[in-house]
Amino acid sequence: MSFKSDIEIAREANKKPIQEIGARLGMTSDDLLPYGHDKAKVSQAFINSVQGNKTGKLILVTAINPTPAGEGKTTTTVGLGDGLNAIGKKAAICIREASLGPCFGMKGGAAGGGYAQVVPMEEMNLHFTGDFHAITSAHNLLAAMIDNHIYWGNELEIDERRVVWRRVLDMNDRALRDVVTSLGGVANGFPRQTGFDITVASEVMAILCLATSLKDLQQRLGDIIVASRRDKSPIYARDIKADGAMTVLLKDAMQPNLVQTLENNPAFVHGGPFANIAHGCNSVIATTTALKTADYVVTEAGFGADLGAEKFMNIKCRKAGLAPDCVVLVATVRAMKMNGGVAKADLGTEDVAAVQEGCANLGRHIGNLKSFGVPVVVAINHFSGDSVAEVQAVIDYVETQGSEAILCTHWAEGSKGAIALATRVAEIADSGISQFAPLYEDDLSLFEKIECVAKRIYHADEVLADQSVRNQLKDWEAAGYGNLPVCMAKTQYSFTTDPNRRGAPTGHSVPVREVRLSAGAGFVVVICGEIMTMPGLPRVPSAETIMLNDLGQIEGLF
Amino acid sequence: MSFKSDIEIAREANKKPIQEIGARLGMTSDDLLPYGHDKAKVSQAFINSVQGNKTGKLILVTAINPTPAGEGKTTTTVGLGDGLNAIGKKAAICIREASLGPCFGMKGGAAGGGYAQVVPMEEMNLHFTGDFHAITSAHNLLAAMIDNHIYWGNELEIDERRVVWRRVLDMNDRALRDVVTSLGGVANGFPRQTGFDITVASEVMAILCLATSLKDLQQRLGDIIVASRRDKSPIYARDIKADGAMTVLLKDAMQPNLVQTLENNPAFVHGGPFANIAHGCNSVIATTTALKTADYVVTEAGFGADLGAEKFMNIKCRKAGLAPDCVVLVATVRAMKMNGGVAKADLGTEDVAAVQEGCANLGRHIGNLKSFGVPVVVAINHFSGDSVAEVQAVIDYVETQGSEAILCTHWAEGSKGAIALATRVAEIADSGISQFAPLYEDDLSLFEKIECVAKRIYHADEVLADQSVRNQLKDWEAAGYGNLPVCMAKTQYSFTTDPNRRGAPTGHSVPVREVRLSAGAGFVVVICGEIMTMPGLPRVPSAETIMLNDLGQIEGLF
């Protein structure tokens, strides 16, 4: 059997006009702002009109720690959404938008795979509806206004050494990580050292994804801390008078984007914050709009459950008043084997013992998720080389953890391969057994919140932090930021801060290198280890082979 | 009588669905890629399908040297287009897209004014259909790939001191004019001095506006010179293998945008290159598509006729095989007065003598335009304070120059105010009397081309240039670039290089400070005086007062 590539399958998609997709959710043509024939933004008027509707069931898809073998979290999100529709449920999916920059490096797209994809795939991986460009503009307008304020006399007495607001581009460009600006003399301002991050790392991105309305958006943008004075008192974006213009630039970007799966089911694709220095979920406004228009909403969180699901629950759900009715934890036989010590090159050989060994990682995630009070189903995303015995080993293991695992073949078969999963997930969601609660209360101290996540999710013995970090946290508490949740930034490959420690390690510590206040987004970022906020291009970037073919189709993007 | 503001008039617009506007030009719904309900991109399939149609008449709107009094060139372009439709002609207009960055500084929009506007005005001054963002991405991808090539071993032997490709942002940000990149150690590359220009100054912008197809686009992108080796041999974007991916990023941006005037007539708004270091016209693909779908196409060129019209004729028409059938030269009584020495504060007082004095500027432009073999009509864009005697003075003067002037009131009255102009322009265009020819032949030397423009358009005595400039031009001729036209970059406020010399000065020289080769766009840029390619924000940027009002409307943008 020879497989078609994702792009070949996507090109054969029988897309319906986006108005037909919207109609399934009660949207008229006027409620949709079309971008071409297969993408649209949902109007604010429509969103306002559905606020009185009943709220659908919320299903979170998360995964074990990612391995080079690939887990298929987005693929499972799409497959489950299609599966729910296939069994007669009214379901929509909610996923993040892809960042343009990394597509020209080596990352593939972020629209699912096989027969469980969202289309139009190429456009979703390029400019899509321009949301990320709008975020780039809003972010950089604020940066320009800060330097402009200093240039014209610095009435606010900004300490030029303490401007923390950098600039952003949606591009992998290591040369911009660390730069000196305003060279060239008097007319260009006061030279200072700063840098660029990739757009998805912008606090504006995190804000857009947590804001509940344009008014809330402007409030949060105004709350951004951009610099401080010599006495360390903060300067806000509001002081620079940038919040109004930034909101204008983000007006359209705030509206959720509607597209469709290969099976013509509705998919909201909106927002895409980093899952390390930010919370890594699609926008609140997309999720809540989906919940008011569909009976079941399947969404996903970034990276593995230790980072993505933890933040989904402790940041997004807490802030937006959401509560998942069921959590689907994606695992693969291949990833279990890698967690059990098998090298990537040897994954083709059956090794039940290694699968069993690697299941410890899966087991810990199940336990962690249950500690939020939510029911957990494991979806085994099937790969063609998986043996029956290996699959059974995972199923048996999950049973010992008081949960259940279901084999899924949506990658090869679309919704048909996710019927069993969809049926069981709908049953659980409908049963109302979820008793969701965030892991910690708002009034815990910031350091205690860090300890709570480190001990209960990472299973670490302790949190290590210099006195300067502890003092900084206390200063923020004194300034009224103590009630914020913490946003952990650590490697996604391990429960520990060492990317090489697979499985379910114990006896480790979590060293906190730095803490940052995202006052607009509303969380304290806790940086454990090296976190890269501006990627570089590889030796042979995929950009070198991306081009239009003679039919005008895009080659090399995936 | 109290006047409504441009934005108030624009908000009251009775817009039709963009599909209805397209239908007037023979486009079906499938031929249009909608962006919302009032903007669309014209599909490549449609453009291909109309190539066999007859070609409409081309009318260029240009102006005297701009003064702070405002001339209303775009307003007249829109008014004339509406006027032609009002007298039963099938007419379309073609104008440039606005740059987002300057709207947050102090520049107003670029969509006409009064009752001669193109809508949706707010969106045209913000993200519009994302074309400029796509250009920013394509430009910066090339920049990232250059530094990445050096980082991974510099196989092409790029001389890091001779990288001429800078980066761009669509933002007024003086801090980025001159920067040092790649600081921070080994992982970030080799530090070097470079900078950012505003997106409209990108050679990619000029290329997009001159390219006739996606294939031509990729060819031109590949031809961009990005750096040179120690032996000064050029490195092309093609050597960096960026041309394919850049073309993919620009795929949608290449398609012309269709919007409408307040009177629901079709308007193509596409591309927006600088009018100093580039040629300052809307895209060739929009103009040619308009000519194949309408009987009359009204377009405009940047700045005054000495810069904009000269480049329209010598660069755009030459390269695209276009020939204007009539030229409309916009003048105002107020601008004539300022050219006659009246200060802006005193413009309200009748001063026929000053008008007569200032007409010298108008007269020179008429003569210059006629030297291209084209018929010239002067449009007097009426302002409410203009006296009858002042208007008559302009009409009488123009008659002495062997041309004719027509008073227009489209700003206050829409098409009704441009009926006389439209009737006369249509007569002239239909008569076939235009005998257009560019001012110089391709095979003149580059320096002779500069002299030709300086002497025949600017009426200068001589061109001053260092030997190094002259040698550079000879080197490019030896390298095969001698057949390119020249693109003059000088102040728009005077025929000379001194912005304060109004009227029709003589006895001056044109000092050439620097020459640059835009090998992809296909012209040699000749820089005379200071040219700013990255603007700054003023002391009180308009961004400070731009915001959404309680109705969700944008305030402060205009």
TrEMBL record, chains A, B:
MF-aspect GO terms: ATP binding; formate-tetrahydrofolate ligase activity
UniProt EC number: 6.3.4.3
Key words of the record: ATP-binding, Ligase, Nucleotide-binding, One-carbon metabolism
Top-level taxon in the UniProt lineage: Bacteria
Coiled coil ranges: none
Enzyme class (EC, first level): ligase
Listed SUPFAM superfamilies: P-loop containing nucleoside triphosphate hydrolases
GO biological process: tetrahydrofolate interconversion
Catalytic activity from the UniProt record: (6S)-5,6,7,8-tetrahydrofolate + formate + ATP = (6R)-10-formyltetrahydrofolate + ADP + phosphate
PROSITE patterns named among the record's database cross-references: FTHFS_1, FTHFS_2
InterPro entries, per database record: Formate_THF_ligase, Formate_THF_ligase_CS, P-loop_NTPase
Family annotation (Pfam families): FTHFS (PF01268)
Pathway note: One-carbon metabolism; tetrahydrofolate interconversion
Binding-site positions, ATP: T67, P68, A69, G70, E71, G72, K73, T74
Family, per entry: Belongs to the formate--tetrahydrofolate ligase family.
NCBIfam families found in the cross-reference section: PRK13505.1
Official protein name in the record: Formate--tetrahydrofolate ligase
Organism encoding this protein: Antarcticimicrobium sediminis
